[in-house]
Amino acid sequence: MSTDYDITETVDVKGLNCPMPVVKAKQAVDSLESGDVLAVIATDPGSMSDIKGWASSTDGVELLEQAEGDEDGETVYRHYVRRTTT
Known about the structure:
Layout: E1 9-12, H1 20-30, E2 37-42, H2 47-56, E3 61-71, E4 74-83
Parallel strand pairs: 1-2
Antiparallel strand pairs: 2-4, 3-4
């Protein structure tokens, strides 16, 4: 994972399942300015395809990166999206 961008806001949706990671990401992105980066931290494995699908079908949102890792014995999925328009 290479986070060569400044994260403007982080949304922790650990423990929430579909559709909440996307719902919370959309709510957060709507409050960002163009160029801002949102980090979404989830434990739902479905968030990998859900966030990717949401970003690809949403004008003004660019998926920068997704990563899977282990934190404290729990699998965590990190998603980085950029707001491209306001």
